[in-house]
Specification:
This protein has a 15-stranded mixed β-sheet that branches. The protein is built from 4 helices and 15 strands. The protein is mainly β. The protein has one domain.
Amino acid sequence: MIVSTRPNQDVALGVSLGYFTSAHLLRTAAFGLALACAMSGSGSAYAQGKVEAHYEASLAGIPVGKGTWAIEIAEDGYSAAAQGATAGLLKAFSGGTGTGASQGRVVNGALVPLAYVASINSKKSETIHINLAGGNVKDFSIEPEPPVDPDRIVVTEAHKKGVVDPMSSSLVRVPGTGEVVSPEACRGNTAVFDGRLRYDLKLDFKRMETVKAERGYYGPAVVCAIYFTPIAGYIPDRPVIRYLSTERKMEITLVPIAGTRFLAPFRVYIPTPFGPAVLEATQFHSTPLPPKVAKTQ
């Protein structure tokens, strides 16, 4: 996801941006959203499924946001869409909503992003568009256009090659033909561009556990450590950047998307000076989709 310069609002909107969005760890990661790594491997003969999930975000146990996330992975394409809003006490001080969406192709079992859009609507609204092709950014925009900050590390053309958008990065593909919910899910490094920030996300295996949503999923999960490395597009002196890049206790809990070799975030945990920031699924419904039947004349 993405790192934000507006931590109070993003704690609240972390859900929406998922973004996951961003969905996004890191504007969201600036407080509380999703992220993970797109990983390589062989596909499954029955690699189609969908997810409908509801999430709640909290800071030090206090509810700050709610959101939904819908994912569909088909034989030749995929889509993901999230929306969220501030909640609880934070809503009274800083009301806001956010949406995010990503879509792309499925090529040899791997996700290939084509387009990403994320919007935040609050006292200061913003919309980000990114178009990609073959893992490279074709073009992107931020509306309204942000002012140029001389302290911000410039994003070069080289930084925009071999990347994925924040929402697509949250869907983890497990290589091989063995168990999907396994330590293998936590082996990978992903280059992410969110329209402003270019960063790397690395996962390391921590443990296996069983999770249960209030509604829907009840079963095994894999917990990975998350390591965030800023590459470009950031201001080095920003406290949130320094904090996230040195924090070693961030975690993401992943559960399977039925019918596929992909996993999606069930829970994200980020320690903060104000207490733990947590994004967790309260409802997680995942179902396999039947393969397409070829039309006959």
